[in-house]
Amino acid sequence: MNIYFLVEGKRTEMKVYPKWLSYLVPELQRSTSFDTVVKNNYFMFSGNGFPSLLDNHLRNCVIDINNAGNYDYFVICLDADEQSVEDCRQEILEFMKKENINLNSKTKFKIIVQNKCLETWFLANPKIFKKNPNSNFLKECIEFYNVKKDDPELMGKLPDFESSTSVFHSSYLQELLAERNVNYSKKNPQSVAEEYFLRELILRNQKTNHIQSFQNFIQFCQEIRIKIVQ
After folding, report:
1. Which residues contact 32 (CB under 8 A, 6 or more apart)?
2. pLDDT score, position 225
3. What's this model's pTM, rounded to 2 decimal places?
4. What are the DSSP calls for 111-131, one per residue?
5. In this structure, which of 55, 66, 153, 203 has its CB flanked by the most CB atoms within 10 Å?
């Protein structure tokens, strides 16, 4: 089992996904180059944001995979941002069709859409929630949308928030973690990559059926682990 990951971000995703994979599929070992995978290896490459992932890297990744000839999966992980999950998937598929980018028939293609972004998933950890925070901005966020009670993936943004929904979700997360004296940034995501944090997200999904796009990632990891250990 060999897997090629193309992830949107160059900071958070490249730090969080390898640690989560080490907990969820410990048999899978990371390779530092796409052409050194042998058995139960994965290679991870950053698309340096969107649309750079599509315009600058997708074609070359597929060429690498086809030339290597020993990848079982090609997985793209990217933010939905303002799009729906399905629209995001369709954009990828239509781009590949339009640009005549063809993956070899032996490699399965998987798209994991982070709805709206990775920070949206992190917001689902109920242990980081603080009912009576000190921060006025956080009080406003909670009054607008309570991420402990309601699904973070269904949250928009404050009406007067000037940046994107993904940036709002990231800001909400930073405020929650700051109340817990935890520093968070895309460059240094720290605690969200740890196993205890991941387990809280899995438990939230199992109890509430919230964060469905996260569930898609977990189910994929379960699927490949079963194939590895069989």
Report:
1. 43
2. 97
3. 0.95
4. EEEESS-HHHHHTT-GGG--S
5. 153
